[in-house]
């Protein structure tokens, strides 16, 4: 019943920031997904008799690869496979299920915020027993294995019924189909004051959550509408679709424009939020205000003690390097350690496992805590709701008070998408060459005090990660960061991160583009963005 299939290896299975992401057409090549999954199994040790969790964000090709993964897990010695009904598990829910059921690890099928459908993107990611994305040492080993793999093992059997909760067997391997929502919703109920949030909503507080036809729909309906009493329709685009309704399930001003329009309209609700394809990202809006992800991290950290799960305070705060330093100011004020890591949630794993930090966040709309080992969109929404229920003030008032206490880090990210890869590499290489000459220079009215290529030394396992982004630091706490995205699937994406700090007694009421105008001009000057990329303006501003 177990078949060993001889194959020649694929040369392009290098995991990026968050697993292997490719067009569906690439994954549809015969043996392609199988080779990558077998490469994962081949570098793991001791999975005999263990449990594997499998689920994904429901995008096109999800169900097929769930079936493949089940058959391969059975052929590779797993005793049990836990699958979310319908092949569904949001990324944070998968992380929780891995932890809760003591699984050996999990295979999460998602390309996150990238579009889905037969001509769009798919992805496979391995998470370890702590519930978090495999560290680089493992993803490097998977890649190395994928280049020389010559066979994979698969059980020859029909499809397992993944649409009905219950147990079945593939050979000796038990396949357990579980409710993808219940465990996660219970976890949230244990962290937050649901009674207080319910009372807030019952008192007329209005919210709008845009699930973007992606995986958070069923989670948000269960938690926000059923358990917290938000009126039906508070969750919009709640039904997950294989192509996300033809949209990019990426919660930003461009792709979640309808939500932004709603929140800036005259009759806006009190609170708006959205999540992405696999449910790990979030954006937060109040009536007439967008809270940048960097600010949201800082504001959540400053107020987390208002939620029961964090009433004892935080161990520390971590942010990715391109994320604004707003959270550092909160950590300093609270006397907490803070950490600056490379982009990618996996870098928070060691800090969380070691108990050094409780809350982490990234500018790329990711926030989360030690409750799982992934960023968690609905968790951020619920922590905000808990804070709003405790403080009984508007989002705008909370933001304003935050800036009056800590100062304001004006922030924006400019993305130049699908540019020529050689041009992008050239731009970064030229910046690298210039680094040593920049400190001491003035660009407009900005004085450069330091410039480097960010490197991270992990204080827990001692590993080093180099070339994680070019940083140019200016006097007064302003900064420009240049990085190439690690998650794109065509060409290169240049990200330019712009940050300007205004102290608490400075100007806190600029419009962001005005506050950043000098930095935007400086970024183009230093990196020759327009001439090197041929682009006059960014494709997306977040
Ligand atoms: C994924 C990762 C994040 C990361 C983001 C942006 O969502 O999980 O940790 O911040 O991608 O990555 P990129 O390399 O595209 O800037
Ligand atoms: Zn995601």
From TrEMBL:
The cross-references to InterPro entries, in alphabetical order and at most eight, read: A-D-PHexomutase_a/b/a-I, A-D-PHexomutase_a/b/a-I/II/III, A-D-PHexomutase_a/b/a-II, A-D-PHexomutase_a/b/a-III, A-D-PHexomutase_C_sf, A-D-PHexomutase_CS, Alpha-D-phosphohexomutase_SF, PGM
Signal peptide region: none
Q: Which residues form the Alpha-D-phosphohexomutase alpha/beta/alpha domain?
A: 13-150, 183-285, 294-405
A Pfam family that the UniProt record links to this protein: PGM_PMM_I
* GO terms for MF: magnesium ion binding; phosphoglucomutase activity
Any one Gene Ontology biological process term? Answer: carbohydrate metabolic process
Which top EC class is named for this enzyme in its record? isomerase
Asked if the Swiss-Prot or TrEMBL record annotates the protein with the keyword rRNA-binding, the reply is no
User: Is Transferase found in the keyword set?
Assistant: no
**One cellular-component annotation, GO:** cytosol
What keywords were assigned to this record?
Answer: Isomerase, Magnesium, Metal-binding, Phosphoprotein
Q: Which reaction does it catalyse?
A: alpha-D-glucose 1-phosphate = alpha-D-glucose 6-phosphate
Cofactors demanded by this protein? Mg(2+)
E.C. number(s) listed in UniProt: 5.4.2.2
**PANTHER family this protein is in?**
PHOSPHOGLUCOMUTASE (PTHR22573:SF2), PHOSPHOHEXOMUTASE FAMILY MEMBER (PTHR22573)
Hey, which family's this protein in? Answer: Belongs to the phosphohexose mutase family.
Q: What is this protein called?
A: phosphoglucomutase (alpha-D-glucose-1,6-bisphosphate-dependent)
Species source reads Edaphosphingomonas laterariae
């Amino acid at each position: 019943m177990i078949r060993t299939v001889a194959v020649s290896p694929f040369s392009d299975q290098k995991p990026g920031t968050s697993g292997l992401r490719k067009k569906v057409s690439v994954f549809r090549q015969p043996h392609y997904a199988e080779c990558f999954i077998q490469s994962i199994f081949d570098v793991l040790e001791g999975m005999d008799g263990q449990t594997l969790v499998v689920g994904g964000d429901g995008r096109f090709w999800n169900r097929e690869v769930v079936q493949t993964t089940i058959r391969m897990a059975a052929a590779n010695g797993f005793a049990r496979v836990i699958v979310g009904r319908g092949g569904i598990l949001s990324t944070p829910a998968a992380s929780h299920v891995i932890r809760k059921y003591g699984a050996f690890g999990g295979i999460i099928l998602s390309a996150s915020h990238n579009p889905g459908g037969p001509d769009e993107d798919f992805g496979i990611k391995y998470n370890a027993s702590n519930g978090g994305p495999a560290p680089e040492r493992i993803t490097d080993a998977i890649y190395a294995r994928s280049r020389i793999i010559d066979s994979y093992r698969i059980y020859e059997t029909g499809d397992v019924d993944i649409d009905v909760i219950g147990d079945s067997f593939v050979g000796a391997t038990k396949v357990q189909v579980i409710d993808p929502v219940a465990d996660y919703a219970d976890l949230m109920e244990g962290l937050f004051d649901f009674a207080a949030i319910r009372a807030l909503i019952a008192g007329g507080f209005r919210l709008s959550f845009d699930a973007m036809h992606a995986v958070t729909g069923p989670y948000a309906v269960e938690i926000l509408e059923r358990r917290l009493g938000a009126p039906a329709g508070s969750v919009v685009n709640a039904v997950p679709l294989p192509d996300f309704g033809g949209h990019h399930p990426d919660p930003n001003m461009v792709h979640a424009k309808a939500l932004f329009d709603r929140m800036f309209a005259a009759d806006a609700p009190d609170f708006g939020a959205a999540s992405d394809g696999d449910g790990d990202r979030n954006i937060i809006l109040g009536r007439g205000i967008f809270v940048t992800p960097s600010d949201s991290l800082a504001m959540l950290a400053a107020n987390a003690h208002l939620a029961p799960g964090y009433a004892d305070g935080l161990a520390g705060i971590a942010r990715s390097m391109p994320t604004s330093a707003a959270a550092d100011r909160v950590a300093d004020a609270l006397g907490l350690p803070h950490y600056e890591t490379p982009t990618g949630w996996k870098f928070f794993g060691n800090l969380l496992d070691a108990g050094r930090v409780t809350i982490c966040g990234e500018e790329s709309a990711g926030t989360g805590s030690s409750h799982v080992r992934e960023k968690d969109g609905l968790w951020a929404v619920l922590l905000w709701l808990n804070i709003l229920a405790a403080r009984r003030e508007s989002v705008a008032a909370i933001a304003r008070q935050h800036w009056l206490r800590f100062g304001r880090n004006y922030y924006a990210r400019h993305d130049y998408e699908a540019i020529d890869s050689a041009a992008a590499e050239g731009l970064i290489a030229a910046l690298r060459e210039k680094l040593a000459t920049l400190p001491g220079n003035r660009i407009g009215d900005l004085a450069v005090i330091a410039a480097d290529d960010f490197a991270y030394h992990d204080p827990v396992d001692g590993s080093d990660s180099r070339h994680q982004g070019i940083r140019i630091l200016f006097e007064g706490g302003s900064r420009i960061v240049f990085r190439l995205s690690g998650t794109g699937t065509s060409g290169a994406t240049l990200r330019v991160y712009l940050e300007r700090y205004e102290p608490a007694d400075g100007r806190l009421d600029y419009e962001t583009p005005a506050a950043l105008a000098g930095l935007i001009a400086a970024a183009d000057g230093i990196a020759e963005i327009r001439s090197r990329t041929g682009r006059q303006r960014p494709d997306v501003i977040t």
